[in-house]
Write a structure and sequence with these properties.
The chain is mainly α. The protein has helices at 6-13, 17-26, 51-58, 61-112, and strands spanning 3-4, 35-39, 45-50. The chain has a domain at 3-58: Molybdopterin biosynthesis moea protein, domain 2.
């Protein structure tokens, strides 16, 4: 039987390391031959998964149902994303129009108004004593 370390199992299954550690904890007390724990000299445990166990666990019929649910959810999310993209593009067009109008108004106002007067120089009364 071919046993894989956690890092190899992550690459093999495409699942996250935390998911595989949770699976190992759930099967720690069981007599299944799919998960093995080896004690290292440092006191840590090395978790090993059999490839047969991983295949049977992640390719079960429950997962086929979840994949169909995930596929329908993804299709719904893609539709919503397309709708939001259209809304964003419409809002960007409105924003461009608003900027053009504001720039035109600023140009008209700058031509019509006289330049602001120069500020008066104020002397500090504190130093004049």
């Amino acid at each position: 039987m071919n046993y894989l370390t956690i890092k190899e199992a992550v690459q093999y299954t495409g699942k996250s390391e935390s998911t595989l550690r949770k699976l190992a904890r759930e099967n720690k007390g069981s007599k299944s031959k799919g998960v093995r724990f080896e004690r290292l000299k440092t006191g840590h445990e090395k978790i090993l998964f059999s490839s047969d166990f991983l295949n049977s666990y992640f390719n079960s019929s429950n997962n086929s149902q979840t994949t169909t649910l995930e596929a329908t959810t993804l299709s719904i999310l893609h539709e919503q994303l397309k709708a939001k993209d259209l809304q964003i593009s419409d809002l960007n067009e409105r924003l461009k129009e608003a900027h053009i109008l504001v720039n035109n108004l600023e140009n008209k106002l700058s031509i019509a108004l006289p330049p602001p007067p120069e500020p008066r120089k104020r002397r500090f009364l504190f130093w004049s004593k």
